[in-house]
């Protein structure tokens, strides 16, 4: 995916297409490439935006789900977006929820969560991260997907580079701990936006029961499961993911 990264002040972001903004928030090991299928498809219908979340750039006190949510708030404000469709995967979903709970008047028209943390997630395990153990990182990457082949060498190399950078590891552990501490169970009833949950039936990081719990707790929400799919449906089965999302966004226009 070869798009121009734009900057405005301290914000770096991708922005393609025209129409109501579809803002995509990536997860802890997320990269722009995770959303290439979504960008390619939806830039025909929407202004597709991916802010680069400053996972490693916040000071240690701000390195939290709340700190990232504050960044998203300031970014959406700085860009002046209206009628935003906010989509978050994994930690990105958690950030989207915290942002909406802190800013109930945010210019957000709908919320889309896929494999979101915020209620429960299986982390990288107690032994994570093993620096220098490529095989361990490869197995962890493969567990993210139903089809281990999605964890390409390029993807594993990216993760391996991150866990071998001491400062990045400290930030990742800090963010992961913040996500676990910041459980949103009691607050989700306050989410007002129509919400779509797209979940892999074979997600082992945030299993299907997590999706069902989200649906129970978020008032105006609907849940779509995708079979033979893991923690990142937009990467693993982009066509099916896009079809479900498109139908949801079309329904909101009626």
UniProtKB/TrEMBL annotation:
One of its GO terms (cellular component) is membrane. Residues 22-243 form the AB hydrolase-1 domain. The keyword Hydrolase applies. One of its GO terms (molecular function) is monoacylglycerol lipase activity. InterPro entries: AB_hydrolase_1 (IPR000073), AB_hydrolase_fold (IPR029058), AB_hydrolase_sf (IPR050266). Keywords: Hydrolase. This is Alpha/beta hydrolase. It comes from Chitinophaga silvatica.
